[in-house]
Amino acid sequence: MRLFAQGELDNRIEQLFKKLEKCSLCPRKCGANRLKDEKGVCQTGRKALVSSFGPHFGEESPLVGRLGSGTIFFTFCNLGCIFCQNYDISHLGYGNPAEEEYLAQVMLKLQRMGCHNINFVTPTHVIPQIVKALSFAIEKGLDLPLVYNSGGYDSVETLEILDGIFDIYMPDFKYSDSQAAKRFSNASDYPQVAKAALKEMHRQVGDLVIDSRGLAQKGLLIRHLVLPEDLAGSSEVMRFISQELSPNSYVNVMEQYRPEYKASENPPLDRRITRDEFKTAIKIAKENGITRLDGLINF
Known about the structure:
Number of strands: 10
Helix content: 25-40%
Number of domains: 1
Shape: globular
CATH class: Alpha Beta
Largest sheet: 10 strands, mixed
């Protein structure tokens, strides 16, 4: 809102759309001219595609509150994990093209429904369209906290353009091992990319701030999905968060992994995690001094 009032938001929009001309929004830097509707790795041209939107009650507790997180699910992504639990959206392309004015209307509708925030799910590849839509929505009264909910495979250069726009960053930290990242997401550089991205996110917004109602207002919230046989490399993930970000980081250690999409063809991803595997990940987090664990403070 401050950038909008200063006229700076228009400058950021221009910078972001310039990156679409020879696409360098994300670390893949595929070079597609998306302004001319060419499609690169993310399979998305000039327009963002929206799969669905509405109040979401399955997100982290500081986002959900009583009336839900106002989620907008975007189609496709820049990672393409073979075990994606939303593969109908990310791989199969379920969704429809959306003009920026329509996105603005969606945000305002979610605000009128009482949602506590606007939660952009998989925004990395469509961030120019989102920010342009914000300019329309703010002009018409949008004033909720904005959540950047990504897979963690984000370009620092792009994130720097977003400084002052998003209140809450909610990235995944999927892997600390480059071989796992290559095998399951075709992104061998994921560990170093995610570490650099999380550092930039933390620089912008700091640790998660929760108000007296228990609602997140600003800060970094990190997700880490526990995978079978520690394929996610939880020890290094937690060490990095504690030592290179902050031991006061708010972390969701997630146990809901289930074999989806092509996971059944890639053991050991063909099974759910065990209770012991999950307990070990929680123990690792606490041994690294991380105690702000979503829903697991007394675990």
